[in-house]
Amino acid sequence: MQIIIEKDYEAMSRRTADVIVDTIINNPSATLCLAAGDTPRLAYSLAAKRINSEQIDVTSCKFVSLDEWIGISDNNDGSCGYFLRTVLFDPLRITNQQVHVFDGLANNLLAECGAMDEFIFNNGGIDLIVVGIGRNGHVGFNEPGVSFDHYSHVVELDATTKTVGQKYFRETTALNQGITLGLKHLLESRQAVLIANGTAKAEVIHLSLDEEISTAMPASIIQNHQNALVIVDEEAASLLKTRRS
Ligand code: GLP
Questions:
Q1: 116: nearest Cα among 52, 156, 69, 67
Q2: Continuous segment of H or E residues that includes residue 230
Q3: Model pTM score
Q4: Which helix (H) or strand (E) holds 10?
Q5: Band of the pLDDT at 242, cuts 50, 70, 90?
Q6: Whether the CB of 38 sits within 6 Å of ligand 1
Q7: Where are the alpha helices (DSSP H) in 54-158?
Q8: Residue 196 Cα, ligand 1 centroid: separation in angstroms?
Q9: What separation in Å is there between the alpha carbon of 132 and the centre of ligand 1?
Q10: Ligand 1 centroid distance, CA of 95 (Å)
Q11: Known catalytic residue: 143?
């Protein structure tokens, strides 16, 4: 695991954007899994800008979402699907055939999980997964206590996630369950990048990277990844003891 500490959010975003773009340059048919959330917003915008200005070919890439709120349509601007579409897929003119995102309104959620796993396996597995970290240490919707042995699955959301998740929505929204890639997908990806910024993430970054791997802190599993990169800003790194690289 390599840890890169950047000065601020912009520098963290620029570094993350470069990893995304370099992955595509090195493997034009890469399969990428990208988290939604506030953390990666600037990184994706910068990546899209670079890809467009340097005319990098993304027509053979595949993109999958990391997670989605169950019961929320991707027309809702608080959904993960809406975020990825507007921040990345539309600016890059990515076609529907290149994308597989969870449908939060699916009637058969098990089938929805199976379809996501199948898309990933049929496209050779995930080359790059970019994840954020929740204030409770979750990754995607892999909440504290989760097994590390799941592919896509449906979860009951933690109280913290239900509360913090309101920030994505214009009005108070009932958030009870999520559908998410499991941590087995993260472990099997060829490269995993965990990003975090701000003092609100300092404690979970410390607990995830300095302490033993534990299901109580799902993000800690990144320590076990063979090719993991953690990109944080100085605020998120402020309690970090491990400065491994
Ligand atoms: C959210 C999502 C995660 C995201 C994390 C951090 O609830 N389920 O995929 O990475 O929490 O979000 P943010 O980047 O907005 O802090």
A1: 67
A2: strand 228-233
A3: 0.97
A4: helix 9-26
A5: confident
A6: yes
A7: 80-84, 109-122
A8: 10
A9: 6
A10: 25
A11: yes
Amino acid at 223: Q
Sorting pLDDT into bands at 50, 70 and 90, what band is 145?
very high
Q: Which two tokens stand for residue 113?
A: 């999980």
Residue-wise DSSP of 112-142: HHHHHHHHHHHTTS-SEEEE---TTS-BTTB
Please determine, for residue 245, whether its predicted confidence score (pLDDT) is greater than 60: no
Q: Give the strands of the sheet with 228-233, arranged side by side.
A: 2-6, 228-233, 191-196, 128-131, 31-34, 62-65, 99-100
Does the annotation mark 176 as catalytic?
no
Q: Residues 136, 150, 188, 210: which is the catalytic one?
A: 136
**Is any atom of ligand 1 closer than 6 Å to the C-beta of 137?**
no
Our mutation pick for probing the ligand 1 site, out of 12, 39, 102, 181, counting the most ligand atoms within 8 A of Cβ, is 39
List, for residues 92-105, the tens digit of each pLDDT value.
Answer: 999 999 999 999 99
66 lines ligand 1 (CB under 6 A): yes
The Cα–Cα gap between 32 and 64 comes to 6
Pocket test for ligand 1, best of 141, 143, 193 (most atoms within 8 A of CB): 141
Longest dimension (CA), the chain: 45
**Residue 79 · residue 69 · CB < 8 Å:** yes
| Beta-strand pair 99-100/31-34 | unpaired
pLDDT digits (tens, 9 = 90+) for 112-134: 999 999 999 999 999 999 999 99
Q: How confident is the model at residue 143 (pLDDT cuts 50, 70, 90)?
A: very high
pLDDT tens column, 38-84? 999 999 999 999 999 999 999 999 999 999 999 999 999 999 999 99
